[in-house]
Structure prediction request, 812 residues.
Amino acid sequence: MGGATSGGPGTPRRRGEQTRERLLAAGAGVFAARGVHAARVDDIVKGARTSHGTFYLYFRNKEELFHALAQQVAGDLEALAARLPALTPDAAGRAALGAWMQDFAALYAEVGAVMRVWTESEMVANDAGRLGTTVWGAFTAALVDRIRASGASGLDPGVAALAIVAMIERANYYLLTGQLTEADGPRLAATLARVTQSALFGA
Amino acid sequence: MGGATSGGPGTPRRRGEQTRERLLAAGAGVFAARGVHAARVDDIVKGARTSHGTFYLYFRNKEELFHALAQQVAGDLEALAARLPALTPDAAGRAALGAWMQDFAALYAEVGAVMRVWTESEMVANDAGRLGTTVWGAFTAALVDRIRASGASGLDPGVAALAIVAMIERANYYLLTGQLTEADGPRLAATLARVTQSALFGA
Amino acid sequence: MGGATSGGPGTPRRRGEQTRERLLAAGAGVFAARGVHAARVDDIVKGARTSHGTFYLYFRNKEELFHALAQQVAGDLEALAARLPALTPDAAGRAALGAWMQDFAALYAEVGAVMRVWTESEMVANDAGRLGTTVWGAFTAALVDRIRASGASGLDPGVAALAIVAMIERANYYLLTGQLTEADGPRLAATLARVTQSALFGA
Amino acid sequence: MGGATSGGPGTPRRRGEQTRERLLAAGAGVFAARGVHAARVDDIVKGARTSHGTFYLYFRNKEELFHALAQQVAGDLEALAARLPALTPDAAGRAALGAWMQDFAALYAEVGAVMRVWTESEMVANDAGRLGTTVWGAFTAALVDRIRASGASGLDPGVAALAIVAMIERANYYLLTGQLTEADGPRLAATLARVTQSALFGA
DNA sequence: TATGAATGAGATTTCATTCAT
DNA sequence: AATGAATGAAATCTCATTCAT
Prediction:
């Protein structure tokens, strides 16, 4: 009673915090494996070694759990977008960009499972879906900013940024879904950095 | 499927053939709007102005209808992949590539809705899902082939091809989901051609 | 397709009409036995020898079935209220009133089970509950009208009518719940007529 | 239950006793608002500002709390039934009866909410339900006794008593549910007394 | 004496599929 | 070829009750 007593589920205290974490973790796994709609609450609670009743103590429904998960991921991604380095045509610029691409891949490997489901969510035009759009928008905006600052000429910054973000996102998705071997990871990061640099400063 | 029945002119298709077409069209719409799993047979038959019983006259189940749809799309896409022009550093090469990108966008606008749900299908790792992988594999293979033929050096053809296919696919997806205006279509095609060329022949 | 195609359940045609009737009948029994809230859809479909799926083909939920039932009953009762005879102090008036009381008892025996549940419904202040209030209001209004026309003096028509309607309703309820034997039915009708007449024209 | 524990003045009830009272009061409110079956333990403990665990410290289950409530009410009502005055045709008799009707209304206003749910309880034929029957039986018995003592002739005491008790009970219910305004209270008591007197001694 | 997170049986509801017409 | 009412397995969600703290 000393804490916030907001109506509805989502905020039991102390002891329950672990249970909530277990549910989130189990949810991430099940959503990644089967998609939001096909995921069954039953799978999630089994994964979290708890009961149906407990699930609804913490989340109003399946979608709310997914939303909580998506929020976390969105925060992580936006932080990464903010760290996109300045774009320069020299070797130092290439190295910085390559390092950032590796960070992206590392984060994507961690949260990509949730992100894969965003595409599905976008179809039903709900909050979680819009979240996906917002996040890629953050990357695009950051890249537009860096392109403008770089003085690169001859291309529309908005369209170019969108194409490059598309490439980064989807290539890492391919990496995750097994169209490249794990060993190709560093090579992919280098390639993405190189293509990005060429796109701005190439012939 | 046995071809025209009556001998009259104008190839008067049997009634059943039209029903099947209506179901496919309605299915495409519903799958696009809600995803494969969330799509209800009820929505599809309503969209096709027919009945549940009739649905099962033409398809063994929901997945089979999706599969039929996906087959069509896959065929169209593989034909397009085969037409990918040779890559050269000159203006002619750029123009040919740009034209091809426009063809890609046109096809994507038509069949993209079905393709969007491949991602979801991949999660449940069934035939339709593998189909998606196969199709992008065809694009990647075609691009690897053109890269090798172009004599471009300094990059791993497999990885580079994958990155570029990722860009093309996903950028057109963004175009479809409203992150660019329709007017940006030609500009996007030009940008994709330019980035591809730079990637191979740029600095 | 030849009929009304209103959205939502409730209007399958022809063949289904019998099924709907069976569900209504079974619902009346279960509601009467256990109350609206405690009634389980499972009991209703078992009583109607059909399945859960079928139930939801005809009614959106339990409450909607109850509402349909209540509507029927309300119509019957209001028709009876309209037939309340003129009130006169003579033997003819007594006889007419007694006959009407018998009609009331007969109708109550038929629909009383549903009416008993109105009380419960009133608690949750929904449509069905308001229906109960409306119906008794119809009886009260009819009685106020007859009292005014009778020239009876010395009592407030509104309050007196309400007291008498209360008596009629509740006494028949007692009859139904076994506080009188079935044989007391005619005697109760006579007593209610007598008390009503005395109330208006007595000392 | 065991009486005051500490010897201090002002009968400082033990903490637990207050908790029990709070639960009873909250229960009365929730039962009245939603009915016995639909009442949730959660609503009751929130209303009593205590916890689920505590609820089961004082009551074996939901029904036991309702039973405790009903017992209190039944005792109060039976005491009132015993105080029903002798019935005489004169003004003094009318006045005594009118005063008793006012007492009835006052008590009903206090405990009517609990009584309203007796009807629902009767459906599931449990102890609490039988309690309701018993209580109205006490009123009927008292009235039969007074009718016999009054020497009134020409009506069956059992049936007449039942009709009159029905009227008193239900009319006060209508008063409570807003079909009369509060100001009508005294007028209703007077009318009930008058109708009762007319029924016995009228034409 | 009090707490409230956890439980799971049992209820509601959905929807792919069947089948009599 | 077509229909659409019927089915029931499987999913979601609720809530009385328990129990470790």
